[in-house]
Amino acid sequence: MSSYFDAIAPIRYQGPATDEALAFRHYDKDRIVLGKRMEEHLRFAVCYWHSFCWTGLDPFGSGTFERPWFEGGSPMELAKQKADAAFSFFSKLGAPYYCFHDRDVAPEGATPKESHENLLRMVDVLGEHQQRTGMKLLWGTANLFSHRRFMSGAASNPDPAIFALGALQVRDAMDATMRLGGENYVLWGGREGYETLLNTDLSREMDQLGRFLSMVVDYKHKKGFKGTILLEPKPREPSKHQYDFDSATVYGFLTRYGLEKEVKVNIEANHATLSGHSFEHEIATAAALGILGSIDMNRGDPQLGWDTDQFPHNVPEIALALYHILQAGGLGSGGLNFDAKVRRQSIDPQDLFHGHIGGMDVCAKGLLIAEQMIQDGRLQQALDQRYAGWDAPEGREILDGQLSLDQLADRTLTRNADVAPRSGRQEYLENLVNRFCVG
Amino acid sequence: MSSYFDAIAPIRYQGPATDEALAFRHYDKDRIVLGKRMEEHLRFAVCYWHSFCWTGLDPFGSGTFERPWFEGGSPMELAKQKADAAFSFFSKLGAPYYCFHDRDVAPEGATPKESHENLLRMVDVLGEHQQRTGMKLLWGTANLFSHRRFMSGAASNPDPAIFALGALQVRDAMDATMRLGGENYVLWGGREGYETLLNTDLSREMDQLGRFLSMVVDYKHKKGFKGTILLEPKPREPSKHQYDFDSATVYGFLTRYGLEKEVKVNIEANHATLSGHSFEHEIATAAALGILGSIDMNRGDPQLGWDTDQFPHNVPEIALALYHILQAGGLGSGGLNFDAKVRRQSIDPQDLFHGHIGGMDVCAKGLLIAEQMIQDGRLQQALDQRYAGWDAPEGREILDGQLSLDQLADRTLTRNADVAPRSGRQEYLENLVNRFCVG
Amino acid sequence: MSSYFDAIAPIRYQGPATDEALAFRHYDKDRIVLGKRMEEHLRFAVCYWHSFCWTGLDPFGSGTFERPWFEGGSPMELAKQKADAAFSFFSKLGAPYYCFHDRDVAPEGATPKESHENLLRMVDVLGEHQQRTGMKLLWGTANLFSHRRFMSGAASNPDPAIFALGALQVRDAMDATMRLGGENYVLWGGREGYETLLNTDLSREMDQLGRFLSMVVDYKHKKGFKGTILLEPKPREPSKHQYDFDSATVYGFLTRYGLEKEVKVNIEANHATLSGHSFEHEIATAAALGILGSIDMNRGDPQLGWDTDQFPHNVPEIALALYHILQAGGLGSGGLNFDAKVRRQSIDPQDLFHGHIGGMDVCAKGLLIAEQMIQDGRLQQALDQRYAGWDAPEGREILDGQLSLDQLADRTLTRNADVAPRSGRQEYLENLVNRFCVG
Amino acid sequence: MSSYFDAIAPIRYQGPATDEALAFRHYDKDRIVLGKRMEEHLRFAVCYWHSFCWTGLDPFGSGTFERPWFEGGSPMELAKQKADAAFSFFSKLGAPYYCFHDRDVAPEGATPKESHENLLRMVDVLGEHQQRTGMKLLWGTANLFSHRRFMSGAASNPDPAIFALGALQVRDAMDATMRLGGENYVLWGGREGYETLLNTDLSREMDQLGRFLSMVVDYKHKKGFKGTILLEPKPREPSKHQYDFDSATVYGFLTRYGLEKEVKVNIEANHATLSGHSFEHEIATAAALGILGSIDMNRGDPQLGWDTDQFPHNVPEIALALYHILQAGGLGSGGLNFDAKVRRQSIDPQDLFHGHIGGMDVCAKGLLIAEQMIQDGRLQQALDQRYAGWDAPEGREILDGQLSLDQLADRTLTRNADVAPRSGRQEYLENLVNRFCVG
Ligand SMILES: [Co+2]
Ligand SMILES: [Co+2]
Ligand SMILES: [Co+2]
Ligand SMILES: [Co+2]
Ligand SMILES: [Co+2]
Ligand SMILES: [Co+2]
Ligand SMILES: [Co+2]
Ligand SMILES: [Co+2]
């Protein structure tokens, strides 16, 4: 077994007053919140890629982390060492779920067949670790963006032979997810987009993507997979433009191919802000459109134009995000996956713990605040009162389609009265939110 | 008649060699381009609001323009003076179309009825001007964003009585458009969005907007209007978030309410870039989704986060935009409306001419370049070759839905061969574009 | 006396448990924090322009507020009514300071002389209100951006006659500030920038600005004014580019004209973020450069590219900003001016109170958190330890200039040893901050 | 000798009419422009890093290029193969200069001494290639950002021992530059910045940077190096914040440490736009401040928040940039270095040529346009007329410091006259620019 995290004892809840950095101050997994255990609300997952695969490399520099499983063995030996370390970390941290890409857990082989077999073997290894530790798989996914063959996309590739290689990986990753009891399956199309319209046919690529996703949905049903298929929106990076730009764009794409009842979105906070939206906006929009599925919990930097994938830090922001999730009825089979990485300068093993502990505590505290906002009820009441007219007869008459434009226009002309606007009370409502956030 | 533009003679085509600033150097309206007259391709419109209503006011300062029709008479008298000046300008410039909001041409009255009647009277005035000058109306629209009653939106207002006032204005503006032979009708929802989710119910507001637009479409059919109903996407400003964020978002909204065959988009260059897209992206996306309707031709400033509505200036950019429009089969009943204003410091009457002449010449030159790119054919050939595999049997088999995910995966696994990627040739294609743009 | 705020009782501290919206929950002005009264730390000011002059107008709509002092009298009568209302508001709120532009308090006259005299008269009125209420003036300033004569700048105007009109206004505004006991004088150059380099000579305009500021500094000394002269950086808006882009740019400008010991900066949170920096960055940079003077306390919207001037809302962010201010030794004669406005939809009189109460409570709570961070000391210790090497002999030898590049290079080559990097511990430090922020 | 580019014949000028893609259409090096050969104006350099070192790796994927010198030999053997390939490329392309980082040309060794010796050996190799081909070195630089030891900066590192390792590299890279006849020496501080203020002491880091740069300048003088020391501004990436944010910030930094006469800036187009400025702005600002040194010629993508380092493409934009450079008197010892890379999908050897040929042609055409704008003179005349008042007596009196604020104010009050603003004529000037750009 890996000894990389030997110095660190399992992380426990010690309450807000503790002076221990390697303890939870707010995440008390069995605490009941709105009738459910905190752990069941938050359904935290640790991602495999950032903490166990990323070397610290960025576009201007090589790796900074020196993990023991990065070199010194065959690819499969190193993959097993990595799995040991990952499950050692998971167990000590105490998050119930993890997530992975196929290529995170099993090395790319020399041929498609070898890659296929590497994954099969590693699924056995992961299954044993799950068995031993009780860890569960929130979702699996396939990496169709790192290998050079996918430089021009997978499903949207101009070459159908590369689409086919993507299909093989996704089929295998879905099989792996099902074998490991995964509760969802995610597709993120980092190269499903374009660098320049000069070499891109948007109509063709949309149709290819529609076909690919339909095949995925059909396969799910054929295999009887009960989990949710999720698309993860992101506006750009690595592509100049990525087709799954944001939740509203994904909704349009799904309706175009008749998939809006079949597929939901995995919303990442950092991707939301890259697309020019707030995190709550993406959550509330997906909820309103009926496609809210799961969350990649992290944060971006408002001054930076790329995906920094930092751990969440700002409790008031997370409280509002969780408030919207709770108001939408929760995430169902989804959860909060920390698609977050420690900074490239955070090179010590305990830094991985600090990142996750901080993130879990921020979410736990945010959940407690969201609970208060819901129990208090004034935020919802203000909303109900503001729109009350739409539940009154004339409002209903309009919404139910009983009035044509000219009927309503004529009635309005006859009435011949202006209508005074009412205050939107934004500052009052913001102060109300702070009553719960600030303590 | 207004004498504001007396010093300026009608603008004529004088060719690239002219030294005259108040002449066209490229816009030669009868020149045949790809089988049609330049004027028929470009279908230029001058907008009423920026050149004849805007005072030069910005958030930090009051008006800078001193147009004679801004003060010194009753609102209706000033409206007539403004119309005189506007048609004097239109005629001298020589663009075939204009566009207006109801409140641009007729003053808001003390009551809804008075506003209604003001508009009726001014429609007569405009009709006479059209008759006299031969000017045509590209589209009309209603201003549902300037008056304080619409501070929380019109169709998406929490108060149905304000929705009703909006319905009256739109019905009247549609009637006015029809009476004046308008070829399209536009809706831009500058306040159809939100300032904060704390006082906003997204589901309700979407449904209200869907209902409103359905009423508009029904009214169009009832009246037998043959023009196109157009939504103008814009991501934000004045709202923090505006529902018609971009073309892809509008497409999703239209499909949600079954309107995707009824309504198209009026794409504004500056709004495209505010939404994080290039102008060509918005055009190509709308074309691929089948909703490309018309263009608000202008430019933004890539360093600024608000709508500067400048005249287009960069010929290579406009050439590519027009290339995409021509490749999509043109704009049908749409056209190129200059939703553009001279800078606040450009206070002389001739500055209005310089702005429009420059814009028209930029588009004319761009059209000539786009013609060359199409006649040359190499850009399209490169695209056809790149995707050729999708027209070959395996590509078709996939796209036609004849292969399930596991069939394709198994076939790929059996083939067990990697596929080499091919160069995207972006730099070659960019150089090819410059052969046409740079002369 | 104005009765606009009659329905509102003076705002009192009632503690975090109160259910009263029109009360302070954290701002307890006499509470001792780090040895000083809260009021003395925060030195809150209310600004005249946003709450008493702004009509709710934005670039797409007219005013929404219907303040009684907006119409129904001569300009001077309305100015007096506005002053009554403003001081009624100030007194009820309980912030100790206010700030104004010359044109906020006294109307522009028909001639320079009339404007000059209007200001003189209104200074008497303001003086009486100050006497009566105990309110103090944090700073005065001159509005050199709203009138059309300043459309191309004031000090940077291409016409020296407009520079001269600006000089008159600034001299008069400085005199007014001095007569009213103002503690600072601010210059914000909203039009001191450019729209296009095509009509701009950067060298000339910089020299004009340098001259103007030197004249201001000389006048301060001549009059024996003890307050601080402050420049307020902003990167753009209304100008495309504004010369006082950010603190670092202002520092360079000051050194160019030998003014870096004479002038400091008034940092606005929203301007910081518009310039691509965090608020703390601007504070810490100004502090490091020795030019931190005062704060315009507000917030922007990270998704919007213009100045929204909202009230601060996020306590953790404000706590860190105040931590940096306290670490820098505080603001001296500066203070926290709420350059913030209620949203255009917040049209009721009490909305003005909600905005300011919320802002004051956010700052008060932030101050208490900053106090804890300082008393705890671990944040500073971590910093001291990280740089300890620079206080050791080799570090000092380098910094003191005792080693040339080749001496140090040769020594390093002889030593011939690599150096292992140490963790930056960012996540640990962020968690530590949250211990204080989250409670 | 490398055979990687064997299929490509030397690139020749063939004129605008040519149909050959691998030829220059505008870059006619001996053509006389404003009295100098085109080659002498443009002083093109090819950079070593992007075309010969970068593997196509990005944050989401591994290398896509398969250059023969990437593997299959010892590091020094590969470095020599790379140099063979690079000089084969340089010679065929026909740009007169190249640029490099120490680590581009010579591999990092196991110890500082081994790295030092690797560089010495490779300088001999490069020297022979220069001798053989006639290529010249525009500038050298040291890579102080890729190795993990520099993860927290080099000169701004909290550990002076890492500063010392940086000093060794810079001394050696300066020596290498001098031995190879380099005409400038560049410092780009990609890690000289911060990720979070929580672990950063801005004052200390600024002083460290000031000391480092002073040591560099002293060494230059000691060695009698006649070239220019250049800092390359960039606002962020890889750091969250980088100290050399933009030209104005660098100017302030230089004045702080008394170096503004010693050091100039190397302005990169893409970095300009990342900092919220246009390319011309950075050029014109640096020129006005007297620190314009050299150019990294490339382009960014206005929709993307990271450094895309694309080849320049837009002729009108480059024409204006070159106009400002020519108006500033040219670049002296500087030049136009293509800090530009082909897209990751452009994997063929000829793609490297297409990128550079396109870039050189864009600059050549831009230069011809700039020549016309200068010879025509109307742009400069418009500027001179606009500011004419400042050359008249009252303007001079003000600028020369002969009037105090109150003298000027009193004089203005006595005159008691408003001043009418004059049109900024932006649209006229933009049209005038297009007369030269559009042909
Ligand atoms: Co994610
Ligand atoms: Co991400
Ligand atoms: Co528009
Ligand atoms: Co616009
Ligand atoms: Co301010
Ligand atoms: Co502001
Ligand atoms: Co560069
Ligand atoms: Co760059």
Automatic annotation (TrEMBL), chains A, B, C, D:
Cofactor dependency: Mg(2+)
The note on the cofactor says: Binds 2 magnesium ions per subunit.
Keyword terms of this UniProt record: Carbohydrate metabolism, Cytoplasm, Isomerase, Magnesium, Metal-binding, Xylose metabolism
* Entry-linked Gene3D superfamilies: Divalent-metal-dependent TIM barrel enzymes
- Tell me which InterPro entries the record gives: Xyl_isomerase-like_sf, Xylose_isom_bac, Xylose_isomerase
Per the Swiss-Prot or TrEMBL record, the active site comprises H101, D104
Q: Which positions does UniProt annotate for Mg(2+) 1 binding?
A: E232, E268, D296, D339
Where in or outside the cell it occurs: the entry states: Cytoplasm
Q: Which reaction does it catalyse?
A: alpha-D-xylose = alpha-D-xylulofuranose
In which family does this protein belong, per the annotation?
A: Belongs to the xylose isomerase family.
Which protein is depicted? Xylose isomerase
